[in-house]
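B., you asked whether I could sanity-check this one before it goes into the benchmark set. Here's the sequence:
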Amino acid sequence: MHDKRSFELVFQPTGLLRQAAFMCEARVFDETYGVALPEHIVEFAPYEDASAFIAVVDDRHDVVAAMRLITPSPVGLKTIHESCGEPWHLDGPRAARAVGMDMTTTWDIATLGVPRGIGRHRFAVTAALYHGLVIVARENNVRSIVMNVDERVRTVLNMTGLVTNALPGAKPGPFCGSPASTPVYAHCAQMLDTQRRINPDGYRLIAQGIGLDAVSVPSAANFVHMPGENDRVLLGSTRTAVPA
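And here's what the prediction gave me:
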């Protein structure tokens, strides 16, 4: 029997749905990098108030994929902080300024994950997360993104035409269970224009959402960030990445 599940894209879920997104995230980091739940909770605790999730929810109201975005706040962006430590030892804020990033319009893709077991829907729900990111960026004037990304995932992104650049001075290095991760950045308009030119099929799918037939995408107004709408998830909760 074919799996005919349908899905919905949700931005900034709250309550039990946000907890489910957090647990989806945690599960993938555990599966992929061996990061236990207590470690994950501690690692993200400083960023909970500045975090907003994009989630893919199925018709049973289960979260099947999630992306955590960290928005500008006095705490700063996680990737920039991480670039200052092992194994890179960069001056993260200076590196960001050198490539033209404005920290008031730069968001951090802190996690992205699709757990094992979703089968043939993996490609569609992963593409839906990236499509959600495109809408979020457009609706919230996000000019640039940063992320600390496993090189295996970065290779997949490059293949889809979503090309990122290493922060100046950063090279792949072991980090948080990943054998090779790199702090990277992209300017959103530039990245999408590159994708349009080098992978038009990927552009239609991710930038325009053409082909996401199994995923319901709400109107753009539902992707406007509402600061203060987040529910802190620190009670024994959740984390993500794309398994190899």
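One thing to flag: The two ends are 27 Å apart (CA to CA). Otherwise nothing jumped out at me.
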